[in-house]
Amino acid sequence: MTFDVHAGEIFGFVGANGAGKTTTMRIVMGVIGADRGVVRWQGRPIDLDVRRRIGYMPEERGLYPRMPVAAQLTYFARLHGLSTFEAEKSAHRWMRRLGIEEHARDDVLKLSPGNQQRVQLATALVHEPDILVLDEPFSGLDPVAVEVMSSVLRERCACGNSPVMFSSHQLDLVERLCDRVGIVRNGSVVACGTVEELRGLGPDRIAIDAPGVSGDWTARLPGVQVERREGTRWILRLAEGADDQWVLGAAAAVGPVHEFTRVRPTLTELFHHVVADQEQGAVA
C-alpha cells in the first residue's frame, strides 16, 4: 500500500468493502500497528505529536451519546491543547459553520444520523488540524449536508497547505470533489492519479450517431464491440489496435454521421473496470 497525499489537495480513497481503506487510515492514526512499512509526514515518520495535529473522523461514531454537542466539542478541543476560551470559541464556530448550532445543548443521541455525522466532522475540525483523515464522512448525509461538508473540505485546502484524505463509496462525489484519487484492491493501490489521468485507463470507447446503419453493421469491423444502442446513437468499445476511422468510414458509407466522439469513462465505470474486471479475471 504505497501512495502519497500532497499539501493542499483533496485525496479520495476508494475501493470495495474489505479492500483495506479503513485499515490504512487506522495505521496512519496509530490505532493499529503496521506489520511493516512507515507512514511519513513531511519526510519524517509520524509520531504522537504529529497525530495530535491530525483531524480524524472514524467510520464508526466516536462520540459520547449522552453528552451535549457544545460540551463535547469543547472537550475534544481541550484534549488537543486549546484553552477553555479557545475551545468554546472554536466549538461554536464549527457548530455555526456546519449548521448544528441550534443543537448545542442537545445530547448527541437525540440528533438525526445526519446531524450526528456533522458533529463527528466538527470534532475532527475543532482543534484546527494540519491534516484531515476522514473515513466515509459523507455516509448518511442528505444533499444539503453533503454540499456543506464538501465546501468545508474545499475551504480547508484553499486556505493553506492542509491535505485532506477521505474514503467514500459515493464515486460521483469523489469525482467531483477530489484533486487525486487512489483505487484500492486487496490491500494495494492499483491505480492513482487525477480523475482525468484515471479516466485514460478505461476502455477505449466512441459514440457515433449514424441513422443509416443497420443492426449488424459492426460485424465486419475487427476489434469493435457494441456496448449499447440508444436509438440511432451507438456506444462502441474498441479493442487495442482497432482503428476508429474504420468505424467512421463504415458509417459514412451508408449515410450521414451526426456525431462521432470519444467517450471517457466516469469514475464509477473506471472503478468497475479496474477493480471488478480484475477480480473476475483473477477468479477465472
Description of the structure:
- Belongs to the ABC transporter superfamily.
- Residues 1-211 form the ABC transporter domain.
- The protein is α/β, with parallel strands linked by helices and 284 residues long.
- It folds into two domains: 10-198, Rossmann fold (3-Layer(aba) Sandwich); 203-264, Alpha-Beta Plaits (2-Layer Sandwich).
- Helix content is 37%, strand content 21%.
- It has ten helices and twelve strands.
- It has helices at residues 21-29, 48-51, 69-79, 84-97, 113-125, 143-158, 171-177, 195-199, 244-252, 267-283, and strands spanning 10-15, 40-41, 44-45, 54-57, 131-135, 164-167, 180-185, 188-193, 204-209, 224-230, 233-238, 259-263.
- The strands form three sheets. It has a six-stranded mixed sheet with strand order 4-5-6-1-7-8, with helices on both faces. Strands 10-11-9-12 form a four-stranded antiparallel sheet, with helices on one face. Strands 2-3 form a two-stranded antiparallel ribbon.
- α6 (143-158) links the parallel β5 (131-135) and β6.
- It is elongated.
- The two termini are 25 Å apart.
- Mean pLDDT is 88; it is low at 280-284.
